[in-house]
Amino acid sequence: QVQLVESGGGLVQAGGSLRLSCAASGRAFSSTHAMGWFRQAPGQEREFVASTEWSSGNRYYAEYADSVAGRFTISRNNAKNTVDLQMNSLKPEDTAVYFCAADPNFSRLRVGRPNYWGQGTQVTVSS
Questions:
Q1: CA geometry: angle at 101 spanning 98 and 105, to 5°?
Q2: Where is 41: in which H helix or E strand?
Q3: What is the pLDDT of residue 47?
Q4: What is residue 56's predicted lDDT score, i.e. its pLDDT?
Q5: How does DSSP assign 57-119, residue by residue?
Q6: Order of strands across the sheet with 3-7?
Q7: Which of 53, 123, 125, 126 has its CA 20 to 30 A from that of 18?
Q8: Residue 95 and residue 92: Cα distance in Å, rounded?
Q9: Could you tell me which residues are beta bridge partners of residue 64?
Q10: How far apart are CA 59 and CA 88, in angstroms?
Q11: Are 35 and 110 in contact (CB under 8 A)?
Q12: Does the pLDDT value for residue 58 go beyond 80?
């Protein structure tokens, strides 16, 4: 099993920044797991935000949703088994519960069907 615990959500004014962090634990977790972030606004479906895909040479490829590209940055720290999401220039439409996700298979994570989900952290952006 893999446990994912998010932190760092909160309330911020439009144009501000927040940093989310997700810590992974459990014997089944590996640094080669894909990890990423999704979000779900009230009344809407959960949507992809950003992901990291492991590649040979201990590198990760990052991918972003068009709505956050250029404003959000995803990063991995293998020593701590964490994945962070730095969110800048936040907009009211970024308001949602943000979920961390992990899976040994990147494709499964990318389509929103990862084996592991965090409990979610609320991000609220006021106008």
A1: 150
A2: none
A3: 98
A4: 80
A5: TTEEEEEE-TTTTTTEEEEEETTTTEEEEEE-S--GGG-EEEEEEEES-HHHHHTT--SEE--
A6: 3-7, 18-25, 82-87, 72-77
A7: 53
A8: 6
A9: 50
A10: 24
A11: no
A12: no
